Q: What sequence folds into this?
């Protein structure tokens, strides 16, 4: 019998006994969790889960601080389970791990890939271990999703089809400016050579940059940022509604600032809290007066951080140049209208 034939027979036997060999496994996405698996997971990890998405610098941190003021709700920052590489699914992405979790000789998997169950158990444990320590029954994570947009919604739904998804939106002009200042203050070590020079010029003489005479952006950078904001809003809103239905809700950052109690009451009711103590309104008002993020940036770079008050609405009106406005209009004019930031493109 030829050696090549024997080799094929042995390979076929291995596949029958062990499943597809690791080098043959191709998986771009992990199989979605089933309704039965969700029900089983909840017997071990019963707390209700929610996730806060939003474009970078859109108020996700403030929303986190506010939402966890409720005695039933806990939220913490940026696990990035579904919003930034390597993603939660990297735990089972290795071909050998994938083969192990799905091979036929594994009698624990009930003939199905265990990947989604493993991912759900890992994230459930991370979320619930802290929520239980603080005595909360509803727990969530906030992680900005601008790097992957709607892809984050799909990844979330594959593991948590039963979760609640909150999407916070901020005027893209202010969000892009805030993100730019964050680059200057928090991520100066990652700036390009051109941006390092721009940062130095801004630090030396900020006035022209703060009065619309000089731009904080290169044209290419601003086009990409504006297009990314539009894409993230469109994808997240569409997929949030189609995949999560009544378990999806959005809010505007500006509305949260203007009327925090009605907006937060709406979100807490959305999450299914059992009680809403009227005394929460005063606690909420007090929390609105603090800004730990601004304090942190002051510690990082006082000279830069003091020139722009963080979290304010409408900073773009005095800072964006005529060229900046034209570029943003080209990419985002209709989105700004759709989200009620403008009624037309005459701004």
A:
């Amino acid at each position: 019998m030829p050696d090549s034939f024997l080799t094929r027979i042995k390979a076929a036997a291995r596949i029958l006994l062990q499943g597809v060999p690791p080098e043959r496994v191709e998986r771009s996405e992990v199989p979605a969790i089933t309704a039965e698996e969700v029900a089983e997971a909840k017997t071990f990890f019963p707390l209700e889960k929610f996730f806060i998405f939003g474009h970078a610098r859109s108020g996700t941190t403030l929303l986190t601080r506010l939402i966890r003021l409720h005695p039933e709700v806990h939220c913490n920052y940026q696990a990035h389970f579904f919003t930034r590489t390597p993603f939660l699914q990297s735990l089972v992405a290795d071909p050998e791990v994938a083969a192990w979790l799905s091979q036929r000789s594994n009698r624990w998997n009930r003939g199905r890939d265990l990947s989604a169950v493993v991912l759900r158990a890992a994230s459930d444990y991370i979320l619930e271990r802290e929520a239980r320590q603080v005595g909360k029954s509803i727990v969530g994570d906030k992680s900005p999703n601008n790097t992957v947009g709607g892809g984050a919604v799909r990844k979330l739904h594959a593991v948590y089809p039963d979760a609640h998804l909150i999407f916070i939106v901020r005027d893209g002009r202010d969000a892009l400016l805030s993100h730019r200042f964050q680059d200057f203050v928090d991520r100066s070590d990652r700036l390009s050579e051109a941006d390092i020079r721009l940062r130095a010029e801004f630090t030396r003489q900020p006035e022209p940059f703060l009065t619309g005479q000089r731009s904080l952006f290169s044209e290419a950078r601003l086009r990409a940022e504006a297009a990314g904001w539009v894409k993230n809003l469109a994808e997240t809103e569409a997929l949030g509604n189609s995949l999560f239905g009544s378990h999806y809700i959005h809010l505007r950052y500006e509305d949260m600032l203007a009327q925090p109690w009605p907006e937060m009451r709406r979100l807490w009711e959305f999450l299914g809290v059992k009680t809403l103590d009227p005394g929460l309104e005063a606690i909420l008002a007090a929390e609105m007066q603090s800004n730990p993020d601004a304090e942190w940036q002051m510690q990082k770079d006082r000279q830069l951080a003091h020139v722009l008050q963080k979290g304010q609405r409408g900073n773009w009106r005095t800072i964006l140049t005529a060229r900046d406005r034209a570029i943003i209009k080209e990419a985002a004019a209709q989105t700004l209208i759709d989200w009620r930031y403008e009624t037309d493109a005459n701004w």
